[in-house]
């Protein structure tokens, strides 16, 4: 019988990594890889779920490529365990794993045609000829390269070679596809277009993708989640949005995108806001729920697009800084301004170019005041 109460809104579905009952598709447990006294991968644990497009990013030498090679079976871990779809594959050789890997160089056989390259792995697996032909046709159609089937790699563009390498990797129907800098050999415009094609392809096939890239923008565009690595360890695993907006430490904040960093100490608290005295002497007011005692050293991280121009005498503006325009970079859609706030402090601000114009909003040497709201940044203790 009617109760007169409005129905409660449906709860949004949990992502698998938010669901404690979900079973990881790839489980990496305390994996370490040591070369002599050097720890390339240092006690890494990670869970990736079926159908994810997961990215490993980090600076050169952080261990991301070594971890990828361990998953492929091309390197053996010094310690730890790897499980794929519930099966322990730690000591399974590369050729027997339900995994395929697409190399940065694409590694196509120069003496073979496109269709022969795609078919090669299927021949190695001794699949019947009819099944091999069917899979090759399927992949060539899927990657839109059927018209190129008789060409050799040296007759293809960079984008076409990338598609052939991807078709060859997918032809074996792997449970897990590993991609090492998959778009690194493409020019900027082709790389941007291919990102979306790769995501759409992955969603259609439902295969779990794990990619290694040094391109932050590439990882942010394609990934369901990203792991940031440094010195063989994982610093943070999160969605692209959460990594950008809520980095857990200074290293992640600096690695993902551009950021302004202000060092200081906690001076007090008002409600959910921390009062921070910077090392330059001026105060900041930031939202922060951490139970930090007065005097705790902190770093305030604020993205350049969070800054806004304001009037120096605006009584409402919080977190207000004044300085002089030192550098300007016009990028078409946005302009980047670097402001000299103190002898040892440059602050970056990004403004969107909404209206067509022939001159910049600000000019070199101009005195300006900027501000940001207390909830437009994060307070970091590491």
Q: What can you see in these coordinates?
A:
- It is globular, with a radius of gyration of 25 Å.
- The chain starts with 25 loop residues before the first strand and ends with a strand.
- Helix content is 22%, strand content 34%.
- The strands form four sheets. Strands 6-7-8-3-9-10 form a six-stranded mixed beta sheet, sandwiched between helices. It has a five-stranded antiparallel beta sheet with strand order 13-12-11-14-20, with no helix packed on it.
- A hairpin with a 2-residue loop joins strand 11 and strand 12 (273-278).
- It is of the alpha+beta class.
- It has eight helices and 20 strands.
- Residues 1-5 have low confidence and may be disordered.
The H/E string reads EEEHEEEHHHEHEHEEHHEEEEEEEEEE
The termini sit apart by 57 Å
Radius of gyration, whole Å? 25 Å
Q: Could you give the count of β-strands?
A: 20
Estimated helix fraction: 10-25%
Task: Identify the CATH homologous superfamily of the largest domain.
Answer: P-loop containing nucleotide triphosphate hydrolases
Any low-confidence stretches, pLDDT <50, length ≥5? 1-5
Task: Determine the strand fraction and express it as a percent band.
Answer: 25-35%
Bulk shape:
globular
- CATH domain class of the largest domain: Alpha Beta
The helix-and-strand class reads alpha+beta
Major β-sheet profile: 6 strands, mixed
CATH architecture of the largest domain: 3-Layer(aba) Sandwich
In what order do the strands lie side by side in the largest sheet? 6-7-8-3-9-10
Named CATH topology of the largest domain? Rossmann fold
Mean pLDDT: 87
Number of domains: 2
Q: Determine the number of helices (DSSP H or I, runs of at least 4 residues).
A: 8
């Amino acid at each position: 019988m009617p109760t007169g109460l409005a129905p409660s809104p449906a709860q949004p579905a949990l992502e698998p990594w938010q669901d404690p009952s979900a079973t990881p598709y790839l489980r990496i447990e305390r994996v370490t890889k040591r070369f002599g006294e050097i720890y390339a991968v240092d006690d890494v644990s990670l869970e990736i779920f079926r159908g994810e497009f997961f990215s490993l990013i980090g600076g050169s030498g952080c261990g991301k490529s070594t971890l990828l090679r361990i998953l492929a079976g091309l390197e053996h871990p010094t310690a730890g365990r790897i499980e794929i779809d519930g099966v322990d594959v730690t000591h399974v050789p590369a050729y027997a794993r339900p995994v395929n890997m697409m190399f940065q160089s694409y590694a196509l056989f120069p003496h073979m045609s496109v269709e022969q390259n795609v078919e090669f792995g299927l021949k190695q697996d001794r699949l019947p000829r009819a099944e091999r032909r069917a899979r090759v046709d399927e992949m060539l159609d899927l990657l839109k390269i059927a018209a190129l089937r008789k060409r050799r790699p040296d007759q293809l563009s960079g984008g076409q070679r990338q598609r052939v390498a991807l078709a060859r990797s997918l032809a074996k129907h792997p449970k897990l596809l590993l991609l090492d800098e998959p778009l690194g050999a493409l020019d900027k415009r082709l790389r941007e277009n291919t990102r979306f094609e790769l995501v759409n392809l992955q969603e259609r096939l439902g295969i779990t993708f794990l990619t290694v890239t040094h391109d932050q923008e590439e990882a942010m565009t394609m990934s369901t989640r990203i792991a940031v690595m440094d010195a063989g360890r994982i610093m943070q695993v999160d969605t692209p949005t959460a990594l950008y907006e809520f980095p857990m430490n200074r290293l992640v904040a600096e690695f993902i995108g551009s950021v302004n960093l202000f060092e200081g100490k906690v001076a007090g608290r008002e409600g959910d806001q921390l009062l921070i005295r910077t090392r330059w002497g001026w105060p900041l007011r930031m939202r922060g729920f951490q139970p930090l005692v007065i005097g705790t050293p902190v770093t305030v991280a604020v993205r350049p697009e969070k800054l806004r121009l304001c009037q120096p005498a605006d009584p409402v503006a919080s977190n207000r800084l004044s300085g002089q325009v030192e550098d300007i970079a016009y990028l078409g859609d946005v302009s980047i301004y670097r402001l000299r706030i103190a002898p040892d402090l440059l602050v970056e601000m990004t403004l969107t170019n909404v209206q067509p114009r022939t001159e910049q909003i600000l000019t070199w040497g101009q005195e300006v005041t900027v501000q940001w709201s207390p909830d437009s940044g994060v307070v970091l203790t590491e």
